[in-house]
Amino acid sequence: MIPETTLMRLDNDLYRQAYAAYREWNAAEAAERARGAGRLSPAEAWCQYADLVEFCWRLAPEPSIHQRREKLAALDRYYEAVRRLGEQGQTHGKEA
Prior knowledge:
Elements: H1 4-35, H2 42-59, H3 65-91
C-alpha cells in the first residue's frame, strides 16, 4: 500500500505537469491565432465556426426531461404568440 502523502505528492506533481502543459499549449494556440489573424476567407472562418459549434454540441450533456419539457412549452408559447400576432394583423389589415 502506498502512503497517502506519497499519493498526494504524486497528484500534485501530476497536476503541476498537466497545468504547465496546458499553459504551453494555450500560449502556442494564442500565437497561432495571432499569426493567422486575417488570413482566413469568410467561408473558411464560417466552416471553422461551424466545426466548433458542432464540437461543442457533442460535448454538451443531454438536457433532462424537465428541461426538454420547459423548452417545448416555451416554444409553444412563442409560436402561439406569433400566431395571435398574425391573426391580429389580418384583423386590422396588416401582415405579420
